[in-house]
Description:
This protein has about 300 residues and is of the alpha/beta class. Helix content is about 50%, strand content about 10%.
Amino acid sequence: MNMSDTQTKEAAFTKLPIEIKSLSYIEARNTLNEIKLAGNEDPSRPDRLRLAQVTQLRQLFQVRGEHGRDDTHVNDLYAELQRDGDLKPIVVWRCGTAAILIDGHHRLYAYAMKQRKLKTPVTIPVEWLEGDVIRAIEKAAEGNTERKLQLTPEQRTDLAWRLVAHDLGHSKAELARMTGVSDRTIANMRKTRAELLKAEEELPTTWRKAMDMTKGRDMQDFDIDAEKERRAQEIAKRMIKLDRVHFADNPDVFARALEIAAPRALAKLVAAIQQLDSFDYEELRDELAGEDDEYFEGTPDF
């Protein structure tokens, strides 16, 4: 086969539209589904890819949300990469010509850090996921239960909301198991989705925004779990803005401050913390400060 024949064959494969990264997660899902059903797909499945060959669609497959990067975790993975030479393969899914990242966003950042430091292209090991776009979305959610880095409660509720919005046919019990969100919250999410669709509203990407869009509903439908989470997030942000002793570096100082401020509540607070997933204060601090993503500096956009 000569070069022109090869180029003709490659041109026959469907490419992702340039604007896909700016689409809503529902629109992006529908676009991927159309491309997948068209069948014009690159059949190659190499064991490694260049970083520029990996496409990120964070609005659809990053379970932590579009700004869910944890720099501490990336640094830990980079140190592991330096020590061992490779990390566990990321999971990618073929759609047209694209290799779309499904699981392993922090690992990809670690390799990008290595590439930036070496100032030369590097490759990353990959594992290929087969199936349709629904299977890809499910795989991204399933990875939530496998990661060492836990999701924050807000990230869990947003993940659950996006899965409810996709309406992939999961039961309440299945969604609760996949996300760690209560059955009651899942039921409220389903009702909220129905209300927004009836009002012909575009479904938002976060549960907080979805509730804000349906404030007129009866108090009996009020989501207690989500309201607790909203209040906790607000308090946490105020604490972080006021923090001058750094919680993680000076836990004894922080504990003493709590004891002084609320001596009777301290024991209850300790018991409540033991029932929660770990909360990443550093991640929230980064969010408040704003994220300037320099990991892929000098790397083609993907």
